[in-house]
């Protein structure tokens, strides 16, 4: 453009003012919308502060989860009686993005808000939800589990690479023994055995640990576009593939079956998964009655029922479905994610 | 040839005949650097939050989809060649259309940002990213052509260094800006499902920044560069297709391809840094910042060094530095100091090769075919690096990461030696041009 300098500067100045106003407006609008999340919604669950313990409850089974309902206790770990999941919630004051607990040990994946960026950490909680120890995490929390004994905790985070498309995502999965704090920071370092042979590749990812005992666990290993159910051995540092197309396994309390996300052929690319159950003795797959897409590591409520999160008005709601393929999905409670049963 | 060569005498030399003081960076280069910086702030804002947005804003699991990277790479290469050729064509006023094609490229990418506010599915987001990359492919060659045409041949290394430093600064500022916006817009970043307002604010601010970049280009970059001579005939498609007949360009392109075939991609390098040097996984997200910081600090001094000792020489030396980085990775050294060492060498490699290659290419191509020549070398290098990624991934599966790097280091050493043999005789040959 052959404009005089003065004109060019004026055009630039006006543009900066206009664009600045648009940008500021967008930020203020977003801030206003976000602040509404701190006010409780009419008709939402009632939440009150109280004592939350991870010990076996005396007064019946308890269900714990991250409360997603708007209000002052949003994102806190809350508890409800298991037989009254829609009842008043008792909030612990501990905020977690992902959570699981067993036998007096809790794992809580938290965001830490820093000056220049947010970082994440995995916190091991004692029976009164007090921090015992924390570990830095490399990315966005996605899965967490505690072993039935309460001795081991595992967590998975997403790590994004530096490429624009966000397509070179990878996961990092860590396991720690809370008795001696022996940390296996990256399960990708374990030897992978696929079809009976050692397997190595640059794109191995491990996620979704579920514990059988204090040495054996199950998880998903992915490489070259394939996912595999593996049985892991902490002492031998091995991951042995058992079955294909299994993500986010969850072992039943009796140790005979694994509930998991199966990528079902013919479904849309951005909602490919359905909830299945695999019998480990026979390797037979059973589809559950849940027909919607699921992106969660399911939880067993006893040996017959699965609990899982589905997208809801306030982020996520909890649902249940029988594990044997019968029945139909039932809503468990609204505005909740990352459940764990105690007792 | 270079003015710099005559500066041995004791007598204070008055600023030479050119319109610029020796050493001063032309306003056009600063304007283009600003455009790149502003545009990079805009695009890196989106890059930084996109994974979080897909995961928590849209509730999509990143492992549920793979975006079509391979096809996209090939398509981008073609777009870049087309951008270079179209930019060399002449408009009604007889001037080359570098600015127009660059504006089209920047404009296309700027249009993509507000689109992110309205598309919410993976295929559509993938399409928006594809259009954004098309814009990037289109603008790269004309932009570099304008930098070369606006600068005295003797100062080009430094001019490209200044541009690359500004560009990298934008890439570092972008994620910080995005974080600041998210923080101002709503405390908690990570709210699963349906919580999109903070991200929408990031996309809106990013759009505004992108528009500003295009505006600065339109207002402050001249339509015609000083070395662009309207009396020369506009190159035909055949001229662009037969560019490789120029011996200097042929040599440079073959070297860029040869060396690109042994340049292990950033993501593989970071993976090896983390695993082999025993870094905590929580440090992994910081590795690209290390490279970028070193690139930012070294781009200008190394660009100026290239002007003094020769661009080909520095381009080769840069790959020697990369070889050193591989060497540190393969050595028994471990821990954070070794990682810092690798990243500084990696950043120095970029500073010694990225802008320097463009400056060397400008020497080898006449002004009227500058865009197509730059596109050719850049595309050759990009495709070679892509091929290297595929090969390296396969090699990793066969022999493991460290061994794959060992093989790559050997191949890189051979290619550097080969490239040195090819480039040596061409050093004194510089295409004459009328400033």
Question: What brief labels describe this structure?
Answer:
heterodimer, A: 343 residues, mainly beta, six-stranded mixed β-sheet, five-stranded mixed β-sheet, 1 helix, 48% strand, globular, B: 435 residues, mainly alpha, Growth Hormone, Chain: A, 2 domains, 14 helices, disordered N terminus, disordered C terminus
Put the structure in a nutshell:
Chain A has one helix and 27 strands. Chain A has 343 residues and is mainly beta. In chain B, 71% of the residues lie in helices and 0% in strands.
Helix and strand topology:
The complex is a heterodimer of chains A (343) and B (435).
Chain A: H1 5-35, E1 47-49, E2 62-67, E3 76-81, E4 89-95, E5 98-102, E6 105-113, E7 118-125, E8 131-137, E9 140-146, E10 152-159, E11 170-177, E12 182-184, E13 191-194, E14 197-199, E15 205-211, E16 216-223, E17 226-233, E18 238-244, E19 247-251, E20 257-263, E21 273-279, E22 285-287, E23 299-301, E24 305-312, E25 315-322, E26 330-333, E27 336-342
Parallel strand pairs in A: 1-4, 13-18
Antiparallel strand pairs in A: 2-3, 2-27, 3-4, 5-6, 6-7, 7-8, 9-10, 10-11, 11-12, 13-14, 15-16, 16-17, 17-18, 19-20, 20-21, 21-22, 23-24, 24-25, 25-26
Chain B: H1 27-57, H2 69-88, H3 98-115, H4 122-150, H5 156-186, H6 197-220, H7 237-241, H8 247-260, H9 266-276, H10 287-309, H11 311-330, H12 335-364, H13 370-399, H14 401-423
**pLDDT < 50 runs, ≥5 residues of chain A:** 162-167
Shape of chain A: globular
Quick check: average pLDDT of chain A? 91
Instruction: Please give the radius of gyration of chain B in angstroms.
Output: 22 Å
Total separate domains of chain B: 2
Helical content class of chain B: over 70%
Order of H and E elements of chain A: HEEEEEEEEEEEEEEEEEEEEEEEEEEE
Task: Note the beta-strand portion of chain A.
Answer: over 45%
Which sequence of SSEs, written as H and E, runs from N to C of chain B? HHHHHHHHHHHHHH
Termini separation of chain B: 13 Å
Largest sheet of chain A: 6 strands, mixed
Tally of individual helices of chain B = 14
Largest interface, by Cβ-Cβ below 8 angstroms: which chains and how many residues each? Answer: A-B, 79 and 79 residues
